[in-house]
Amino acid sequence: MKLLEKLDAAAAARKALLPNGVGAFGIPIEEVYSATEARIGNRRVLLLGTNNYLGLTFAPECIRAAHEAIDKEGTGTTGSRMANGSYYGHRALEKEFAEFYKCSSGIVFTTGYQANLGTISGLVGPGDTVLIDGDSHASIYDGCILSGADIIRFKHNDMGDMEKRLRRLGDRTETTLVIAEGIYSMLGDQAPLAEIVRLKKAYNCILLLDEAHSLGVLGETGQGLVEHTGLLEEVDFITGTFSKSLCSIGGFCVSNHPQLEQLRYVSHPYIFTASPSPATIASTRAALELLRTGTHLRKQLWNNCTQLYAQLSGAGYHLGPDAGPVIAAIVDTPQQALLLWQKLLEHNIYVNLILPPAAPEGKSLVRCSVNAAHTTEQINYVGETFSKLYSLVN
Amino acid sequence: MTDSNYDEIMRLLCDRLSALTDSELLITPDTNLISQLSIDSIKLLNLIMEIEDTFDVSIPINGLTDVQTVRQLADLVYKVKSTS
Question: For residue A24, is pLDDT > 80?
C-alpha cells in the first residue's frame, strides 16, 4: 500500500488547513434557484463564486434548444469526433465559432480543459518550445507537458521578463509557441496583448491566446481581449471554453492557419474521448448567439464589476490590478482567508477560496465572480458584508 | 564547465533554498526538496526562473520531473549550463 501513502500525506495536509470538516472545496450545492442563488446546507446563498458571467444558465433560449436536441438526437453521442460523434450540431457550432472570430476554421472539444490540452499538444512537440505566463491555468501547463516541448515560463504579465527569455532562446524562437490568457483566473487581470503581439512578431513566434474568462466579457460583441484591443488578426490561435459565459461544457480553438484542421488527426484529447452531447452543443449554439448580441448583458456585468471592485477597494481590501468579473481579495495567510470565507458563508454569500500554491506569490485569495444577473442590491449587500468583515484580514 | 562551476551552482542553490524555507535543517546535496524542505511546485518553478537569470540560460521545467534532491537539481542546472 506504499503507493497510496502519498495521498494520505496530502489528506493530512488538507485536514490541518481545513479543520472541523469545513468543506470549502467541493462544497455541496443542494438546489440551484437561479443564476445568482442556490441552497448550501439549509442556507439560501448568493452565488458569487461561479463563472456564469452573462448569467445565462437559465436562459429560456438555451434550455429550449437543449430540450429539443435531447428529443431529437438523444442524451449522448456515445463516440469520438473521429468516429460516430460528429453530428450536424458539432459541425455547425465549429462554423459559427469560426465566423464569430472571422477565422477560416474552428474545432470543438469536449471540455475547455481538453481544448488547451488538445491544441497545445497538437501544435508543438519534442524539440519545440512553449513560452508561457507563470500564472497560466493548469490546462495550459498540462497541455505543454503532454506535448513534450520544452517549457519556459516568464513572470506574470512582465514583458521585460518575457523578452529576456525570448532573447535567450536564440534561433529556437522560430519553433516557439507563446501562450497567454485574455483574463487570468486568479487575480482577474488582463494580458498586455499589444506588447505580447509586438514581441511575438519581433521574434517570429506563434501566439495562442486563451479567452476562457474573457469570452463574452470583453469587446463589443464579446470576442474577448482580441476584440477589446483590436488585435484579433494578430493572434494565431484562440482557445476558449463553453463553461463560463456560454453556460454549458466544452471548448474550442479557432485559427486562420489551415494546419488547425490537422489537429483532428493528431490530437489525442480531441480523438480519444466522446464528443459533447447534443443538448450541450445545442444550448451552446443558442448561448453563443445571445453572447454575440448581448451588449446589454456586458453593460450590466461591467456595472456590477466596477461597483463591487470600488466597494471592496474602498473597504481597504488588497485586490488584483484590474476591475473585472473576477475580483480577488488578496489575503496574507490561509487561516485569514478561510475565516473570511466562512464568515461570508454565514452571511449567505458563497465565494471561492484559493490557497497556496494555487494562489500567486504565497498569498491566499477570497475570490468573487460577478455576473450580469446580479442585482444592484445583491452587489451592494456583498460589498457591505465584505466591508463589515475587513477586520478579519487586517 | 569545471568542478568549481558545479560548486558555485550547488552553493547558490543551497543559499536560495535556505531563504525559501522556514526549516532550520542544514541543506546538503542529498536534502529532499519536497519531503524535507516542503518546497511546493510554484516555489520550485520560481526558483528555476531565478537560476535562469543568474546563469543566463533557459532551463525547461520539464526536466524537473526527475528532480527530488538538491544534487539532482544542481545536476540539471550544470547540464543545461554546460550545453548552452
Answer: no
Task: Determine the residue of chain B that is closest to A162 in CA distance.
Answer: B49
Residue of A nearest to B63 (CA): A150
Q: Which amino acid is at A346?
A: E
Residue-wise pLDDT for A341-380, tens only, equals 999 999 999 999 998 888 887 899 999 999 999 999 999 9
Per-residue pLDDT, A62: 98
Mutate to test the interface with A, among B41, B45, B56, B62 (most CBs of A within 10 A): B62
Asked whether the beta carbons of A336 and A364 are under 8 A apart, the reply is: yes
Pairwise CB contact (< 8 Å): B57 & A168: yes
Q: For chain A, list the domains and their CATH numbers.
A: 12-47+295-392 (3.90.1150.10), 60-292 (3.40.640.10)
- Which residue in A100, A88, A79 sits closest to A245, CA to CA? A100
Sequence-distant (6+) residues with CB within 8 A of A240 are A112, A115, A210, A211, A212, A215, A224, A251, A252
Residues of chain B contacting residue A152, judged by C-beta atoms under 8 Å apart: 52, 58-61
Q: Report pLDDT digits (tens) over A144-174.
A: 999 999 999 999 999 999 999 999 999 999 9
The CATH classification number of B3-83 equals 1.10.1200.10
Is B58 close to A168, i.e. CB distance below 8 A?
yes
Distance CA A385, CA A379 (A): 10
Are B80 and B58 in contact by the 8 Å Cβ rule? The answer is yes
Reply yes or no on whether the pLDDT at A240 is more than 70: yes
Q: At what angle do helices B70-83 and B41-55 cross, to 10 degrees?
A: 40
Separation between Cα atoms, residue A197 and residue B71, nearest integer Å: 39
In this structure, the number of other CB atoms found within 10 A of the CB of residue A65 comes to 22
- Give the Cα separation of B80 and B70 in Å (integer): 16
Is pLDDT of A264 > 90? yes
Q: Where are the domains of chain B?
A: 3-83
Backbone angles phi, psi at A226, to 5 degrees: -60, -40
Q: Where are the alpha helices (DSSP H) in chain A?
A: 2-17, 60-73, 88-100, 112-123, 138-147, 159-169, 193-202, 225-228, 263-266, 268-271, 278-292, 295-315, 334-346, 376-388
Is-contact A357 B40, C-beta < 8 A?
A: yes
Q: What is the amino acid identity at position B51?
A: I
In one-letter notation, the amino acid at residue A203 is: Y
pLDDT digits (tens, 9 = 90+) for A270-281: 999 999 999 999
Residue A19 pLDDT:
58
pLDDT at B9: 92
Q: How far is residue A292's CA from residue A269's CA, in Å, rounded to a whole number? A: 28
